[in-house]
Amino acid sequence: MPKTRTVNVTLITVGSLLFDLHYGPYSRFWWQHSSDSTKDNLSYFPIRVGQTTKAILNEKVFYLTIVVENSDNSFAPGFICTSGTISSKNNGSSGYKSSLNYKYHDKSALFVSTIEGNHCILKIHQNSQVQCQFVDNSPNAVWKSSNFIKNFEGINLFGFQNSQTKESIYKNMIPTCLPTN
Questions:
Q1: Would you tell me how many other CB atoms lie within 10 Å of the CB of residue 115?
Q2: How many of the other CB atoms lie within 10 Å of CB of 97?
Q3: First and final CA of the chain: distance in angstroms?
Q4: For residues 99-114, average pLDDT
Q5: E strand or H helix at 115, and its extent?
Q6: How many angstroms separate the CA atoms of 178 and 160, rounded?
Q7: DSSP bridge pairs for 126
Q8: What was the pLDDT predicted at 176?
Q9: pLDDT at 168 > cutoff 70
Q10: Could you give the CA distance from residue 158 to residue 139 in angstroms, rounded to a whole number?
Q11: Which of 5, 26, 63, 131 has its CA 20 to 30 A from that of 54?
Q12: How many other CB atoms sit within 10 Å of the CB of residue 53?
């Protein structure tokens, strides 16, 4: 008999139901049968855009976030998995920018996180000048290499775990069609 392992999964962010996806022509992609459904009583649960779950496997923390679009279908759910400095995809795209205030050499400084092309960049500004800069391939990696604010992951410091930021990113990822004149 095969051994099965129980993995505890924690819901971090509930996510959002989007009318066009969950109740429109692509709704079949966005609802899943519940595991306790029976022949006589089918129940479904929604796959929510922006939903993030956390699981620990082999003492490593994994975050799974649901996004709009996957490699096969731009209207189906996609999944981004992040663990440590490794991510299956950066949540933002080129041009994304966020900032926070923190101390640098015991003085207030502006930490600006940006994504340019395939690079995540962290610049530390003080007195209207860039004091130092770090470049890496993911939000987690760039913040780790900076050695600042070590008790948070880079995806949090970039702002990707903030519910308002996530909702804005996911809404902007949804393809829209507009009539042309």
A1: 21
A2: 13
A3: 65
A4: 86
A5: strand 107-116
A6: 28
A7: 129
A8: 46
A9: no
A10: 7
A11: 26
A12: 15
